[in-house]
Amino acid sequence: MGGLLGHHQYLINNHQLPRIASPKLFKPAPPDLETLRPYLGWAPDKIILKTMENTTQYARYVRTDDVLKKHFKARFPALNVKRRNEEVATDTVFSDTKAVDSGASCAQIFIGRQSLFADAYGMKSDGEFAKALQDNIRKRGAMDKLISDRAMAEISHKVQDILREYHIDDWQSEPEHQHQNYAEQRYQTIKKYVNKIMDSVGAPANCWLLCLEYVCYLLNRMATPSLNYQTPHFVCTGIIADISALLQYRFYEKVYFKNHDPSYPSESRERLGYWVG
Predict the structure, then answer these.
(1) Which of 28, 120, 189, 269 is most exposed, with the fewest beta carbons within 10 Å of its own?
(2) Are 207 and 182 in contact (CB under 8 A)?
(3) Nearest in space to 183 (alpha carbons), one of 127, 129, 254
């Protein structure tokens, strides 16, 4: 292989490769005020400009082949879900014990980057990640960006299709640097609470998923120092959380519940169980 040649070209196997062009910066064209003005009530130019800066326009075109058909939802999926307006980090948690209620052997957690709002979804394999992602979008809204490690299930073609459909950006941590994923950091707090509660009440190992879901519900409604002692629920939704349900029973507390259609008179109308959230 030859040395460095003039004009910044390399000689490789007698072929000259041209110099790679420097990246160029492109600025989006300014809004066409004349075109927009009739659609926005002939508002002042500054109002129109600021409106375009602070809103989204996900529906870029209108199909004309089915305009006269009845539509109950917009034909653009991104318009049919609410927007969460924050980045969300996700990670998969594995267990060596199957969950008592569903047989799940792992769970997918989603953590709001700004609100710390947490959700957990039980799964029988990490291949169910796409379904968990869709459930989280359906319940909480489409996030601005999905942060994950480079697990194959989290960067699959199916997941990429979901992100494109709802206009969601994505970011993955570097290989062997999972600590870059914010979900890992918050999960350590969640895991500490799960272990403490299960040890304190003597819950069996197969209740791990129930306790994980309970802790997410609990921490979402607890004052958090890093949020200026607001709750993640309030920061995420703008709604003050009610904790009445949390003050009625403790996790894995024995409770009596109604026995539906008991055999008379040998069976009681009550049965003994455990409160798990």
Answers:
(1) 28
(2) no
(3) 129
